[in-house]
Amino acid sequence: MIEVELRGWRPDDAPALLDAFGSPDMAQQAARPIDTPQAALEWMGVWGFRDDAQAFAVVVDGSVVGNVAVSNIDAHDTGWVSYWTSPHARGRGVAVAAARKLADWAFRERGLFRLELGHRINNAASCAVATRAGFRPEGVERAKLCYDGVRYDVERHARLATD
Question: Residues in domain N-acetyltransferase (predicted)?
């Protein structure tokens, strides 16, 4: 398994963020375009001022190659996990290692009990990440997401502190 470091986002990480969101598949993942240094800093800032969330830059060999986060932490000690990696870092186990490390942190440091995530059912790579990181499939949410006017089914996964 590849070794990853999780750390807070820093202003000097903006070029890595711009590079990642310059990829067509990543561009649609943000609420608004991340295509300028200012937009990158604003994205980082949104994550930095929330009580219900924590995002981490994923670092391999000193370079930022992705993001992993837990958000929407609720009164039931449940959080929503998300992850992405830059195109050049894919296929090496980075997202799996980061998701595992995030889960360990969320259970130990935040005291969460349940972590959930979802992926479009046509995203086999994200499903593999979730499964390899210990998130068990729980079912399909029909037509949950909409990108460019197209509805997508989402498979939900969860991992418990007791798993």
Answer: 4-157
